[in-house]
Design a protein that fits this description.
By secondary structure, the chain is mainly alpha-helical. The chain folds into 4 domains: 159 residues, no CATH class; 273 residues, no CATH class; 41 residues, no CATH class; 36 residues, no CATH class. The strands form 2 sheets. The protein has a two-stranded parallel ribbon with strand order 1-4. A hairpin with a 6-residue loop joins strand 2 and strand 3. Helix 2 crosses helix 3, helix 9 packs antiparallel against helix 14 and helix 17 packs antiparallel against helix 19.
C-alpha cells in the first residue's frame, strides 16, 4: 500500500517533494518520541499526516503547530465502542481497515491519499452512533464517504469561500497585468528623458550633421546618424510622444483624444507609493525611533505600503492596455538608438567630451538651456526600476497570501521571545499537574521564525533605495513625505478600459462634466465641439 499527499488544495509550503518528505520525517519523529513505534507505511501515521493537512496545521515554525499536533495525535490514539456497548476497538484498527478498503477501490491501484484516509476515517468515527465499526454496513459507508471525497475534494462541505483575491492558480489579484505596468514604466522613463532633452539633443545633432557643420567624416558616427535620420517614420513624433505622456501619466502639454480620460491620478498614486516606502524604511531604523523623531507617523505598516502599491499597480495596469504596449516599445527603441549615437566616440570627440550626458550639456544651450541632468536621469532610472518591481509582484499587492509584505529582522527576535515564554509557561503548568500514565509529554517550544515575506529582501532593499533616490533628487521635504504616506482609501480602478463612444457620440452627464474639469485643470481649452460632446445629452 502506498500513501502520498493529495495535491488538491495542498498548501504552497507542501507542494515541493522535498518539503513533503521533510514534513513526513518531522511528524514521524514526534510520533516516535511519544513511543508510537510507527513507520511511514503505517495507516496510523498516514491518518495523522492527513488530519494535520486537513486542519491546516502544516507550519512547523508556528507556535500553534505543537499544540495542534498533540491534539490530533491524542484523538488518533483513542478508541471507539463496538455495538455491544462495552468492547473498545482502537482507532488505529479503523484506519487500517479504511486504508485497505480504499486501496482496493477501482482506480486507486493500491495508493491512498493521506487526506483521503483522514477525511473518510473521521466521518466514519463521527457516525458510530448510527453505524458501528463492527456492523455489516460499515464497509459500505467507507465507499460512500470515499466517493464523496473524490467528488468534493479534501475539504468536502465547509464554511470556506472561494478565493476572493484572485490569487489562486498563480493569477494576479484585480486582474493586474505585469506587461501593462512595465509599459507604463517605459513611458515614465521616456517622459523624464524628454525633460532631460535627450530626444531634442539627438535631433539637433542630426540637424547639425545634415547641414555639414558637425566635424565627423564617413565613419561610425556618421553611419549611426544616417541610420537614425532615415528611420524617422518608425519613431513617435514629438506630438505623439507628448500625447502618450499626457494620456498615460496625466502630465500637461499633450493633445489627448476627447474619447479618453487622461490619467490625472498617476502622480498622486506614484508619490504615495514612494513616500510610503521611504517612511516605512525610515521607521525601521532604530536611530529614528529611539530619538523620538516623527513619532506621530510611527503607525505606518507594511500593509499601508501594500495598499499604495496596489493602487498604483491597478492604475498603471488600466492605462497600459492597447496601443500603450507598442508606444512603449517604440519609445524604448528610440531611447536605445539615441544613446547609441551619444555613446559613439566620434560624436563625443566632435563635441570635445567623453560621455553621453556631456554631449547633451553641450547641445542643450542651443535648445534654450541646460536641463537638470542628474534629476531627470535619476527619475527615469529609478522610476523604471520601481514600476518594474511593482509589475513583478502583481500577485502580492492585494494581500491574499497571508504573509507580510516585507521582512522585519526584528520580528524574529519578538517571535522567538514569545515562543520561549510560552514554552516556559507550558513547562511550568506541566510541572504543577501530575501526568496521566501513558500520555505523551509535550516537547518544549523552540525558537520560531517569522513567516516568509511576499517581497524578497533584495527587492525590498531595491524598493527602499530607489524611493530614497526619487525623494532626494526632487528635494521633497519630510513634511511632504509624511503627508503622502498617510493612509488613504483604496482607489477603484477597473481592470479593463471602458469603450469610448464613436465619433459623434457623447460622454454626457456627470462623466462629461468630470472630464471637462480635468481638461481645464490641465490647462486644456476645450473647443466648441468638445463642449457639445461632453455636456449636451445624446438624442
Amino acid at each position: 500500500m502506498n500513501f502520498k499527499f493529495d495535491p488538491t488544495n495542498l498548501p504552497d509550503s507542501l507542494k515541493a517533494q522535498d518539503a513533503q518528505t521533510a514534513f513526513e520525517d518531522a511528524v514521524l519523529q514526534r510520533m516516535n518520541d511519544a513511543s508510537a513505534g510507527v513507520t511511514k507505511g503505517d495507516s496510523f501515521f498516514a491518518a495523522v499526516i492527513g488530519m494535520l493537512v486537513l486542519d491546516g496545521i502544516t507550519d512547523q515554525a508556528s507556535t500553534n503547530f505543537i499544540h495542534g499536533f498533540w491534539s490530533i495525535f491524542g484523538d488518533a490514539s483513542g478508541s471507539t465502542t463496538l455495538s455491544d456497548g462495552t468492547t473498545q476497538v482502537s482507532n488505529k484498527s479503523v484506519y487500517q481497515e479504511v486504508a485497505d478498503a480504499i486501496s482496493k477501490i477501482a482506480g486507486h491501484n493500491g495508493t491512498v491519499y493521506y487526506q483521503e484516509l483522514a477525511s473518510v476515517s473521521r466521518q466514519l468515527l463521527a457516525n458510530t452512533d448510527t453505524i458501528q465499526v463492527d456492523s455489516p454496513g460499515f464497509k459500505s459507508q467507507i465507499r460512500i464517504y470515499d466517493d464523496a471525497y473524490v467528488k468534493n475534494g479534501p475539504l468536502g462541505d465547509t464554511l470556506d469561500l472561494p478565493d476572493l483575491t484572485g490569487t489562486a492558480g498563480g493569477g494576479a489579484p484585480d486582474d493586474l497585468r505585469s506587461d501593462n505596468i512595465r509599459a507604463v514604466g517605459v513611458i515614465f522613463a521616456a517622459y523624464n528623458l524628454e525633460q532631460l532633452r535627450l530626444f531634442d539633443a539627438v535631433d539637433r545633432i542630426i540637424e547639425t550633421w545634415w547641414n555639414g557643420q558637425l566635424p565627423v567624416g564617413s565613419d561610425r558616427g556618421s553611419k549611426a546618424l544616417d541610420d537614425f535620420y532615415w528611420s524617422t517614420e518608425f519613431r513617435l513624433s514629438p506630438s505623439a510622444r507628448h500625447m502618450q505622456y499626457s494620456r498615460v501619466l496625466g502630465v500637461t502639454g499633450g493633445e489627448v483624444s476627447t474619447e479618453v480620460q487622461p490619467n490625472t491620478q498617476f502622480h498622486d498614486l506614484w508619490m504615495r507609493l514612494i513616500a510610503s516606502l521611504a517612511e516605512y524604511d525610515r521607521q525601521q531604523r532604530i536611530g529614528d525611533i529611539v530619538s523620538g523623531q516623527r513619532a506621530s507617523a510611527l503607525t505606518l505598516t507594511g500593509e499601508q505600503v501594500r495598499q499604495a502599491g496596489r493602487n498604483l499597480a491597478a492604475n498603471a495596469s488600466l492605462y497600459g492596455w492597447g496601443g500603450t504596449q507598442f508606444a512603449a516599445r517604440r519609445l524604448a527603441k528610440h531611447v536605445q538608438q539615441a544613446f547609441d549615437i551619444l555613446n559613439t566616440p566620434e560624436i563625443q570627440n566632435a563635441y570635445g567630451v567623453d560621455g553621453p550626458y556631456k554631449v547633451i550639456e553641450r547641445v542643450a544651450p542651443e535648445l534654450g538651456g541646460t536641463p537638470n541632468i542628474v534629476k531627470y536621469r535619476t527619475l527615469a532610472d529609478s522610476g523604471k526600476r520601481v514600476l518594474d518591481l511593482v509589475a513583478k509582484y502583481t500577485s502580492k499587492w492585494s494581500g491574499g497570501t497571508g504573509n507580510p509584505l516585507f521582512s522585519d529582522p526584528s520580528q524574529s527576535n519578538v517571535v522567538n521571545t514569545i515562543a520561549q515564554g510560552l514554552g516556559a509557561i507550558s513547562l511550568l503548568v506541566a510541572a504543577q499537574h501530575k501526568p496521566v500514565a501513558g500520555a505523551p509529554v509535550p516537547a518544549p517550544m523552540t525558537n520560531s521564525t517569522p513567516p516568509t515575506a511576499d517581497i524578497s529582501p533584495a527587492d525590498q532593499d531595491e524598493f527602499m533605495r530607489q524611493a530614497g533616490y526619487v525623494i532626494a533628487v526632487q528635494g521633497i521635504k519630510d513634511t511632504e513625505v509624511v503627508q503622502f504616506s498617510q493612509p488613504a482609501e483604496t482607489q477603484y480602478a477597473p481592470s479593463v478600459p471602458s469603450l469610448a463612444p464613436v465619433s459623434g457620440g457623447s460622454t454626457n452627464g456627470q462623466a462629461g462634466i468630470d472630464q471637462l474639469r480635468q481638461m481645464v485643470a490641465q490647462g486644456q481649452v476645450p473647443t466648441a465641439d468638445q463642449l457639445k460632446a461632453l455636456v449636451l445629452p445624446t438624442h
